[in-house]
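Now for a concrete sample entry.
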Amino acid sequence: MKEVTRSRTADSATIAEAVPAVIDVQAIAPHERHELIFSSFNRLPQGGALELVNDHDPAPLHRQFKSNFHGLFTWDYLEQGPERWRVRIGKAPGNCCGSCGG
């Protein structure tokens, strides 16, 4: 898995956070998938993106994003089945609430 690393400064210390550029959820236990995707999305910088790879249309995940992050994300299908779906999920620039320090 490719990783993009960004640095953030907190209390004069630099903390490096790895954000996966590609998350292939086919290799991840189903009950761990959404938590991993949401935590990875939350670590993205404004304007950053990750790519999700799945063996089915992640429409339920898309509905969760619309409910939890309305207006704060982009969703672009890169491949739409029938055996593999790829989606680019981006953190929309300029919509930061300020609570994450991003």
In short: The helical segments are 30-43, 59-68. The longest helix spans residues 30-43. The longest strand covers residues 3-10. The radius of gyration is 14 Å.
